[in-house]
Amino acid sequence: MNDADFMESRVRELSARAYRNNYLTHTSFLGSAEQAAFFDALRKLGVPKNVPEVNGSRYLLNGGHPDAERVMAIFLPSYLTEEDFLNSENENPAVISCIKAEPLLRKFSDDLTHRDVLGALMNLGIERETVGDILIDREEASAYIFLASELTNLVEEELIRIRHTSVKCSAIPLSACSASPEFEIREGSVASERLDAVIGFVFRLARGKAQTLISREAVFVDGRLAVSVGMTLKPRNRVSVRGFGKFVYEGMMSETKKGRSVVRVRVYR
């Protein structure tokens, strides 16, 4: 079974279980390629575009924080709304936890990196698919680790050293994470706030190339497959372009004398 067939089978299984048994189910953490496979599976299953429901079960993509790159596909039981689920997860996580790893002696600590933290987790025998985003707070010299909730106790008790730095790990509410992904701010003029125009500006592509990427289903807006090259972006839309990267659209800052829009985006580094 190839990856695409496996994802389709998994989506069928999890959504059906959530609907029939009326309890929450979810995938492991999905990277960008796996998220693309997830949406491919929805298309093969005949799920209408931009309709977050499969086999009678509503779903959402969640990685524990608003700008998450790695997310789980979570299928909800009938009694649980998306809002109720997110509120419950913040204080009593059943799916995704956040662990804060901070040095015991800040004065003698290394400057931790994403690779350092991930390596330390792998050394504990933890599988990559159970780990979401790892955010570094350089001012605190701390790391925030999003991971499957069942691993919370293991990481709190066993992760005591990252590289040469002794650390203390403790679970915190998802909303208490003070770090955020690193972005590069870009501003420039575009013909309009259309999706194809902004993608062309961000990734320095001809507009025709941007339109081709959209038509080939390589573009996602807020986790949903983009269905129109003429879609108008709104502030805080998160755009992912397979093979190029991700950015957050911040909106139009001004208009030039020639009627072009000056826009601002935050591009993931």
Average of pLDDT: 91
Please name the CATH architecture of the largest domain: 2-Layer Sandwich
N- and C-termini, Cα separation? 34 Å
Silhouette: globular
> Helix share of residues?
25-40%
Strand count, sense and barrel status of the largest sheet are:
6 strands, antiparallel
Low-confidence stretches: none
Q: SSE order in H/E notation? A: HEHEEEHEHEEHEEEHHEEEEE
Q: Work out the helix count.
A: 7
Structural write-up:
This protein is of the alpha+beta class and 269 residues long. The chain has three domains: 89 residues, 2-Layer Sandwich (Ribosomal Protein S8, Chain: A, domain 1); 81 residues, 2-Layer Sandwich (Alpha-Beta Plaits), CATH 3.30.70.330; 86 residues, Structural Genomics Hypothetical 15.5 Kd Protein In mrcA-pckA Intergenic Region, Chain A. 28% of the residues lie in helices and 30% in strands. The chain has seven helices and 15 strands. It has a six-stranded antiparallel sheet with strand order 10-15-14-13-11-12, with helices on one face. It has a five-stranded antiparallel sheet with strand order 6-7-5-9-8. Strand 13 and strand 14 form a beta hairpin. Helix 6 crosses helix 7. The longest helix has 19 residues. The relative contact order is 0.12.
In short:
With 269 residues, the chain is α+β, with helices and mostly antiparallel strands. It is 28% helix and 30% strand. The strands form three sheets. It has a six-stranded antiparallel β-sheet, covered by helices on one side.
